[in-house]
Amino acid sequence: SPHWLLWLGLGAAATAGSCGFPQEVNLSLGAAFVVVWALVGVTPKQMIALGVDALIELYFREYMVIGEEKVPSKGAVIFVCGPHSNQFLDPCVVSRGTERDIRYIIAAKSLRRKDLGWLFKYADPVPVERQQDLKRAGRGKVTVKGDRVVGIGTKFLEDFAGEGKFQILVAAPAGEKAKPAPARVKEILGDDEILLEAEAARDRPEPSKFHVLPPVKHDVMFESVYSHLGGGGALGIFPEGGSHDRTELLPLKVGVCLMALGAMEKYPESPVHLVPVGLNYFSQHKFNSRVLVKYGDPIAIKGDGAILRMFKSGGDLKKRAVGDLLRIIEAALRRVTVQAPDFATLKTFWVVRDLYCPTKRLLEMSSVDQVLLAQAFASDYHRVREDPAVDPLLDRIRNYSRKLSGLGLRDKGNIKTALLVKSHSKANLLILLVLRCLYVFLLLVVFLPIFLALFPVYVVASKYSTRKSAEAVAASTVKIKGRDVMGTYKLLIAIPMLLVGHLLDCFLLRWSLGEAPAMAYFFFAPFAQFLVYKRIPELVEYLRVTRTLAFALFTKDQTKEIVKERERLKTEVRELVDRVQWGFDSELVREHRVRRSDTHDSFRLDDFQDFEKTFSKSMAKLYDFTQGDIHDDLLYKND
């Protein structure tokens, strides 16, 4: 067994140490045995699985999964994932929540990357070529009018030579914000003229440069997918195509339907289940963020069902079958994600959730319930918005949110601070404020060395990812700020910097202080850094709450007005939600309606008989409301 190599490595390191060799030699000898063990006894997929766990642990401070019991334990499964909003981290997030061994559909372009392409190959993905990834510059310039493209100094017959459907991408003039879209070529009329399948989105009277998008063949890719599913394997796909940072799903591509139905047609004895997977991120572009993975109810394709029969018939019936299945998949994917037309509306749903919940329940609510409740309101918005009272109330909620943001406040922090101000004298609040400031100062002093060690990594990773996100936006037609690529690039730069920095620190300690301090730093410093890194969000939250307390203490009248406005909005939101039954398809919404009549709704600003007992001791005040899960909310993060 190769595991004996670990024992031999330990023995070799101990023997070398007893012979008086330097610690560096002992560690190197033991590490060599570990490397050999990893190469011999661990498969590439096992190493990747360990790496996935490490990345999730490093990047996220909270990883939550619900519905994992719905995933079939065996048989052909396609994990249909969305929204694709965190580039290469998304597959890691999906795989972490299930025991199935998933092969992912991946753009062939990603396998050609110099930084990560070699690693992706070990995950045994299914590569798929995309026309936009193979584009090449055309010779000459073109003008566009209607469905005609006229060339100037062009060689269309050579540039568009070959079988299959070509596309042409005409560059936009300088200063135009709209990204150009490719157009399908119907016929090459000559070296200087092309006929398009439909009229171009806009005419281009000025001569412009262009790119040729050659046709691609997917026969090999589909055969690989069919074989994998026919053998009962699991496949992962992001049907939107490329990653993006929008607040709603992009139009889904038909590839997932062709894969599922094609596999069923070729291997009828191996039924295929499609499992919708919703990826709900809290600020996916930030370190120490949170994510909720929600697995939905599997979609079973029946071997004798109408959809498969139409697909087998071919022609228009096949197109209809693909369209019907795509609509089913899209509906299922929307049920496991929080969707909104834009980011402002998405944030408003979170405030609606906070206003609807009983106050005590809101402060105790888990992250999972937060997402599920907001999802219930978001998914039912298209129905209830027909009521004339809905949009005006949402506008008032947005104004309330902007007012809080302008003052540097947050909704939940505002509630808790209001409770403190209401239940304590000004002298007690001043003492509490001073104690909190001292507590923050002591933490900063204690953690300062680690902060100084991590700060350069944070700055460089942030700057590098920001630059890469700008490049991604420039090359994309769907990205807004490019936040979907920032997490990947932060990890790409942060991990090497941490490793090199750690080794350099050890070398400097060895040179200046000797062997013992260097060895202690080598083994224990990473743990200390990791613990402090994980506590940073709580420290930041504590600073925010302290700032809110200071604001409420010195602007008490303004604080009272904000609290009163919140109470009015809460009453109106509850009345509206109950009247139009907004989100009542969700059991969680109905449960909160019932709970407002029990003790959860007795925790109000006008009732503090038992509240003062909670803060009877000064040290208890010091640690009041420090838990990050209570405070964190998408709405009031600095996005």
Main features:
639 residues; alpha/beta; eight-stranded mixed beta sheet; eight-stranded antiparallel beta sheet; 13% strand; disordered C terminus
Give a description of the structure:
Helix 8 packs across helix 9, helix 17 (411-423) packs across helix 20 (515-554) and helix 17 crosses helix 21 (556-580). Strands 1, 2, 3, 4, 13, 14, 15 and 16 form an 8-stranded mixed sheet that branches. An 8-stranded antiparallel sheet has the order 5-12-8-9-10-7-6-11. Strand 14 and strand 15 (289-295) form a beta hairpin. The model is unreliable at 596-639 (pLDDT under 50). The protein is of the alpha/beta class. Helices cover 55% and strands 13% of the residues. The longest helix has 49 residues, at 426-474. The two termini are 52 Å apart.
Calculate the terminal CA-CA distance, rounded to whole Å. Answer: 52 Å
Q: Which word captures the global form?
A: globular
Query: What is the residue-averaged pLDDT?
Result: 83
The oligomeric state is: single chain
Number of helices: 25
Unreliable runs? 596-639
How many strand units? 16
Approximate strand percentage? 5-15%
Rg, please? 29 Å
Share of helix among residues? 55-70%
The largest sheet is: 8 strands, mixed
